[in-house]
Amino acid sequence: xxxxxxxxxxxxxxxxxxxxxxxxxxxxxxxxxxxxxxxxxxxxxxxxxxxxxxxxxxxxxxxxxxxxxxxxxxxxxxxxxxxxxxxxxxxxxxxxxxxxxxxxxxxxxxxxxxxxxxxxxxxxxxxxxxxxxxxxxxxxxxxxxxxxxxxxxxxxxxxxxxxxxxxxxxxxxx
Length: 174
Description:
This protein is α+β, with helices and mostly antiparallel strands. The protein has five helices and four strands, in the order ααβαβαβαβ.
């Protein structure tokens, strides 16, 4: 009986995660282009459906589980922490296993600061991640970047813990 509840909870969590939400077009993308379609770049497509190819090897889910799909930054910084560097080394190893995969680096900030400043800071964070991946042997042609600034918070609260989760760069499998 307990196992049934655990399975039901897992299915409900998966359905909630796959639900998607409407978000405004990011800076640099025309409205209605669909963008990545998911907050945090879940990569499941603009309609919210997940194809089988997105669940197996070489998928966003595989990438997040085996390499980690995000690195975090200190307040008003675009320099990597040692933990961030380790995550990017794992990402580079994963990307070398799947040489046909391209990625988009999303730069994010917390809500403090102007929209313009945060777009710029998010861009610097994305560039930092791209530069490290390129230095680790990933061709620059496989990596695109976009800054969402403060427009797509991971945690929509105004406290230190939420701010820390929102200061990130997310690598999204295209």
